[in-house]
Amino acid sequence: MTSNFGSVTVKIAISGSAGIGKTTLAKALAQSLGLPLIAEGYAPLFDLPAAPPAELVPRFEKILRDKSALEASHQAYVADRASTDLFNLWLSLGLGQLPQETEKFYRACREHSQCYDYVVLLPWGVFSVQPIKNTGNFQQRADNPWIQLRNHATICGLNALWLPEARLIHLSQQAVSTEERLAAIKQFFVAS
Hints:
Layout: E1 2-3, E2 6-7, E3 11-15, H1 22-33, E4 37-38, H2 53-72, E5 77-80, H3 83-92, H4 99-113, E6 118-121, H5 145-162, E7 168-170, H6 178-191
Helix pairs in contact: 2-4, 3-4, 3-5
């Protein structure tokens, strides 16, 4: 795939907590690389407010299956969120209280994470976290920055556990604008 980044054919996921610019960067990176964008796909988890954890298990499994199938249908892509993000959401919604299901889903997410050539980790704390506007479903974003920091630390930690360091692209606090972030990713590929 030829782009202004040169010849790049990769499977990249953008990962991290809510409100740090993942979707904005994923769209810009996909466009810059001329690659398809794989959307987050989490909306089905928020259709019913306050669903008991056991009712959420098949929804999580379906989202992982659907995203895996969509990603597998492309030779290269940019994914908005990685499987580490989905497992963090599993834990955040209290599904960790289901030990057997959690073990199974942990293994499935970890295995899925191996499909990414690179995972881009955005810095936390660059932007103030804004709640999601009412989108017609029950999706909510915690606007407490400390909850988001916990989520970000968990996601970054899972990425570090599941993938070799050479496959993680850490963007610095100084890379604030989308253009700066794209330039940092381009520099990573030039240096590799």
